[in-house]
């Protein structure tokens, strides 16, 4: 099916057209410059910016795909989770297009979109598999049982992985968003320079540690203490700190996902979300998977961070299964991933 999808859940205005797993066009207009000075996303500014450029993005997506409206089978938009004001812009645009052109409409769960980023490059990928979803707001190990059927096996108890990268970058004065900057710096640093805590979650009554859950606030605090100490001693070896931090986070993510896949009898791991672009995570996951005979699939780099192609791909799958959303579907700031089928009738 050919789907036009709109993604405006946070600070990317994105429109894409996808034919099942094949991307026909993908427009992403990032607001990073707009929010940079504040060190994070300002919700009011985000909605206003979405509103200003959503129409040009839609036209450009149609033009680049070289299609007419009669070629489009359905219109989709991210409806949850995200900033409500930002989601509303994309949803209003998608519903309007669906009404005007008389097309079926589908709301899509943003995290299901991140899971589908891997399908875009892998024609043979199919459930069941484990998806490690590591983004700016989430860190979850998701058991993909079937299309639209998910079970959350592990998640972070505090900061998301991407959030940890952003916070560590901020305390090292590296700029925003921190993930790509730390990734680049880490290439020239010594990852063994500074040992950092793995961030484990204790089980009650001294029964050891939670096997799949994550915690990143301890690592972040350890980096803060470390930089304070290094600063007092002289210059901070920024590349070594970045490399040590990335090494610790990437190792933990890879190790616990592999254990999670093995424990649940799964032979395939995929990753999704902005941190899925991280070179350290890709390296450790590839190594760990190889060691245990697991298959591992990565989304193309440009479809790791927010985009509409992944949303369209998820919508195409639902469309093919006969799923449709009502035009009065509302946006929601949050919704559990295992409830996605509630979005369809
Ligand atoms: P969510 O999907 O949870 O709502 P989001 O959409 O804001 O959050 P994404 O766009 O998936 O998040 O990812 C953005 C995050 O990914 C940022 O925290 C950014 O620092 C991080 N990131 C991007 N590239 C890299 C990289 N190469 N290494 C590590 N982190 C990265
Ligand atoms: Mg973003
Ligand atoms: Fe995202």
From TrEMBL:
Cofactor entry: Fe(2+)
GO MF terms, alphabetically ordered: iron ion binding; tRNA N(6)-L-threonylcarbamoyladenine synthase activity
Catalytic reaction equation(s): L-threonylcarbamoyladenylate + adenosine(37) in tRNA = N(6)-L-threonylcarbamoyladenosine(37) in tRNA + AMP + H(+)
Cofactor note: Binds 1 Fe(2+) ion per subunit.
Keywords noted in UniProt: Acyltransferase, Cytoplasm, Iron, Metal-binding, Transferase, tRNA processing
The protein's Enzyme Commission number: 2.3.1.234
Job description of the protein: Required for the formation of a threonylcarbamoyl group on adenosine at position 37 (t(6)A37) in tRNAs that read codons beginning with adenine. Is involved in the transfer of the threonylcarbamoyl moiety of threonylcarbamoyl-AMP (TC-AMP) to the N6 group of A37, together with TsaE and TsaB. TsaD likely plays a direct catalytic role in this reaction.
Protein name: tRNA N6-adenosine threonylcarbamoyltransferase
Taxonomic lineage from the root: Bacteria, Bacillati, Cyanobacteriota, Cyanophyceae, Pleurocapsales
């Amino acid at each position: 099916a050919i789907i036009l999808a709109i993604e405006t859940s946070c600070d990317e205005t994105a429109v894409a057209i996808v034919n099942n797993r094949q991307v026909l066009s993908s427009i992403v207009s990032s607001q990073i410059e707009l929010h940079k000075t504040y060190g994070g996303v300002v919700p009011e500014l985000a909605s206003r910016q979405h509103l200003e450029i959503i129409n040009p993005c839609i036209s450009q997506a149609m033009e680049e795909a070289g299609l007419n409206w009669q070629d489009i089978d359905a219109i989709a938009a991210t409806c949850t989770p995200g900033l409500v004001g930002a989601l509303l812009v994309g949803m209003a645009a998608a519903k309007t297009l669906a009404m005007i052109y008389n097309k079926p409409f589908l709301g899509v769960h943003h995290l299901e979109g991140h899971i589908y980023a891997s399908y875009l490059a892998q024609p043979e990928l199919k459930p069941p598999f484990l998806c490690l979803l590591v983004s700016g707001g989430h860190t979850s190990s998701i058991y993909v049982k079937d299309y639209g059927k998910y079970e959350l096996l592990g998640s972070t108890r505090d900061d998301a992985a991407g959030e940890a990268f952003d916070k560590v970058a901020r305390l090292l004065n590296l700029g925003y968003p921190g993930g790509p900057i730390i990734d680049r710096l880490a290439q020239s640093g010594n990852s063994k320079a500074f040992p950092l805590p793995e961030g484990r979650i204790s089980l009650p009554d001294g029964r050891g540690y939670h096997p799949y859950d994550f915690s990143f606030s301890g690592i972040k605090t350890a980096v803060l203490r470390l930089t304070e100490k290094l600063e007092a001693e002289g210059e901070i070896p920024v590349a070594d700190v970045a490399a040590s931090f990335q090494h610790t986070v990437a190792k933990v993510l890879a190790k616990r996902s592999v254990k999670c896949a093995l424990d649940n009898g799964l032979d395939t791991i995929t990753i999704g979300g902005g941190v899925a672009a991280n070179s350290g995570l890709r390296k450790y996951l590839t190594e760990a998977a190889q060691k245990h005979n697991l298959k591992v699939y990565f989304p193309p780099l440009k479809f790791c961070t927010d985009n509409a192609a992944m949303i369209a791909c998820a919508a195409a799958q639902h469309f093919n299964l006969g799923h449709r959303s009502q035009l009065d579907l509302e946006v929601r700031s949050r919704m559990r991933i295992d409830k996605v089928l509630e979005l369809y009738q």
